Amino acid sequence: MSLLRVLLAAAPSPSQEVAWATYDAQGRLTRSGAGTPAEWPQMDSREAVLAAGTVRLARVTLPPMPADRVAAAAAFALEDQLAGPAQAQHIVASTQRRDGTVEVAIAPRALVASLQNEFARVIAEPQIAPLPAARTWRWYPSGAGGSFVRKPDGSAFAVSALAQGSALPPELALAMAQSSRERSLDRVEVAFPVDDAQLRAWTQDEATAFVRASPWHWDQDGAALATATDLLQGELSREPRAASRSAGRRFRWAAGLAVAALVLHVGATFMQWAWLRFQAWDVSRGVIAAARGAGVAEANDAESAAAALSKRFADARHRAALAAPSDALPLLSRAAPALGALPPGALKTATYASGTWTLDVGKVDPVVAAGLDHSLALAGLTTLAATTPAGTRVRVSAAPGTELP
Length: 405
Known about the structure:
Layout: E1 3-8, E2 18-23, E3 29-35, E4 45-50, E5 56-61, H1 70-77, E6 89-93, E7 101-108, H2 109-115, E8 121-124, E9 136-141, E10 147-150, E11 156-159, H3 170-182, E12 187-190, H4 196-206, E13 209-212, H5 222-227, H6 247-293, H7 302-319, H8 328-340, E14 347-353, E15 356-362, H9 366-378, E16 381-388, E17 391-398
Parallel strand pairs: 1-4, 4-8, 9-12, 12-13
Antiparallel strand pairs: 1-2, 2-3, 5-7, 6-7, 9-10, 10-11, 14-15, 15-17, 16-17
Helix pairs in contact: 6-7, 8-9
């Protein structure tokens, strides 16, 4: 079957000449030229090749996912890199590889849609250019003017036309500056005619080797053209799409997943609550057992058992002529750093009784009062504060569990 391929930078215009090439059934190039649509050779089939200036190739890495979600995930991953609104772009993703990578072609939706009914396939010019070696970029000429760069990972970006004897195009210079920071580029191969002096100048200016590569033209490799990804996919596919599942079925799946998630959450919450209750019961049982082992007969619950143990410990310290942690001076020493942060004269009175200091603090800034409470808590003390006409009255005692040294 004979085939005509045309290189397009825009939708075909009756007066616009574009490059074309014909191929035989074996994919061999038979003729090439340029002309308006009325002048194109009549062949069995026609395909469009989008010029490099209208399409970009990117590569993204995605987590494992079903094949029907890859295109949407790739579009989301590239959302902040798209030129213009996302709905104006037509995005075609390859199948996901084992390492999670996906090659993505991005082209104007309006352009691809205008070709949908006139051509059997639409492919991207950069995709038919051979890949360079690792840590190498290859700079190709575009058959529609300008040029493009292909990277080893399969991505490609357009480059503006090169003026004779000029510096590098800004797109290429910017990309090379980025790669220099990442140290990912060793050399750039130039696949169009260029003299040695220009290669040396670029090499010196960019501190990256520029070398000559074999000249390349968009229509020379019929096999690469035949195997390139067809951009007529998804909403712009020429093939009828399979009937989508009904909305009701999708809703049932979503509702089922939501119910399952709710049941799992409630079950996990109940298990956590039960485990915490068990831990509290086990600690209480241990405290009661310790109290009864120490001869405290009235230890009927954990709170009374802990209080009895603290009292017995304090009594034993007193019999040995030692201070207990809840005595006046040890308790005051723990509170002293926090009290020292009060403004001069703020502490009016301090009274001790039964393991508790009662402090009368004059009127102070609320921030200072909050800081006092926080500092006392950090010292392992429990506070109870009440507002009085003269300021604040604070009761300070040892926090549960800190009565023992």
